[in-house]
Specification:
mainly alpha, 3-stranded antiparallel sheet, 6 helices, 3 strands, 74% helix
Length: 171
């Protein structure tokens, strides 16, 4: 019989591999889902920044504070890969399907909002500190995405009622 931990690891690896193949072979070259996420992320960021008083210019994948250099949200840089990994973990972890479904939906919505905040950050940061753009871009996932993912993964482990997997990790 396979242990709960081994089952989780095997399932998670299988989902991550399948997701990466689907993303690299179909989704990224096709571009429609990436384009949708990029444009909707820019739209969300425009609304966020306009709401808090910034004058914003945006069109499609491009956003900027008025008068500043624009930022373009490209395919592969809009959080789509992270969505797949996040959902893969939730689906791999033992627990009720109802809880996994709720976590997948609420986590995905929260990641979408985090992406809007991240794009907002890019536009404002690029307006005030353009020479540090690379640093901001490289560190943004650690600030906006990973805390959300880790919190939801933690919640998943706590509500799963799967003590055997947690006990196996502790021994």
């Amino acid at each position: 019989m396979i242990s709960p931990l081994a089952r989780f690891v095997i399932t998670a690896l299988a989902i991550f591999i399948v997701w990466q193949l689907i993303y690299d072979i179909y989704l990224l070259p096709d571009g429609r889902l990436d384009k949708f996420l990029s444009i909707s992320g820019v739209n969300a960021a425009s609304k966020i920044l306009s709401f808090i008083g910034f004058s914003i210019e945006s069109h499609g994948r491009i956003i900027s504070c008025v008068g500043a250099r624009p930022v373009e949200i490209n395919n592969g840089c809009n959080g789509l890969q992270l969505f797949g990994m996040f959902i893969g973990f939730i689906l791999s972890y033992p627990g009720s399907w109802k809880n996994r479904f709720i976590l997948t939906i609420t986590g995905s919505i929260t990641l979408f909002i985090a992406n809007g905040l991240r794009i907002s950050f890019f536009a404002v940061f690029n307006a005030y500190y353009p020479k540090y753009w690379n640093l901001a871009h490289e560190s943004s996932s650690y600030i906006f995405f990973y805390p959300v993912v880790l919190i939801f993964w933690y919640i998943c482990t706590q509500i799963s009622n799967e003590d055997s997997l947690l006990n196996e990790l502790q021994t």
